[in-house]
């Protein structure tokens, strides 16, 4: 498979931008399966980059290689010019934070405590002390608490600081994950499917939050299946297919790329995505309801009602 940068290579880095992430030739093999093959990906300061691709394309595996959870079989990952160690806490300490596809909060800790745990790489106290919340931790962490409250204000969760994480609605749990990731003061935030399972309103709020994160000086790399979200948010999009980078370029170029359409998107993405489909569904429902009213006697029940 040949990788193409649809906007042309090499790309000149816009003035004032610096390298944040530089992944080169990353390959990850699990026994006989090559989940990621020779992938290069850069993220510059001030950028929001999207990583898309079909299920099983290797996106999360690639994230795991970036964050030290996996040791790539080949290749290397550098953050701000320094090659990263293969230890996740050291990667976080270096400046890369992440959220996970499945929410990983401390369910029985409060919202504030969850963010404080996220600060452990920026304090002397360490994770164990943070979890045990002993007197030393309390004393040393007053500054952290202030910062954590700032992050809760930033993510709109300040009013729920004392709520248990498990009692938050789903969309707010996702926000809390982002707040906790930001607590390590990252230069790069990796988001793995941040809008999965969200309502349209929650997705839109997540978009605003990611833009605000960038405004605050943190670059973002995001995996997502919601193409509307990706194409409306990202400066650049890379497409993984069967472990290889198929295409990389602007959202417009990637959406229009025939290989991406064939391998992943299916149909070209135009106008207000989702609206046309929603209108079609409404129309079909109206037709079906009319047919039932006219053609049936008795209960008038919609036989497909259970599907909605
Ligand atoms: N720890 C592992 N051991 C063996 N195989 C794995 C492991 N992790 C992932 N894989 C395999 O690697 C391939 C890529 O999986 P990965 O989860 O990275 O894809 P993905 O693009 O993130 O998919 P999705 O969009 O469904 O989350 C899949 O075939 C998966 O089964």
TrEMBL record:
SMART domains: AAA. GO terms for biological process: D-alanine transmembrane transport; L-alanine transport; L-isoleucine import across plasma membrane; L-valine import across plasma membrane. Pfam families: ABC_tran, BCA_ABC_TP_C. It comes from Streptomyces abyssalis. InterPro entries: AAA+_ATPase, ABC_AA/LPS_Transport, ABC_transporter-like_ATP-bd, BCA_ABC_TP_C, P-loop_NTPase. This is Branched-chain amino acid ABC transporter ATP-binding protein. Keywords: ATP-binding, Nucleotide-binding, Transport. Residues 279-291 have a biased composition (Basic and acidic residues). Residues 21-267 form the ABC transporter domain. Residues 267-308 are annotated as: Disordered.
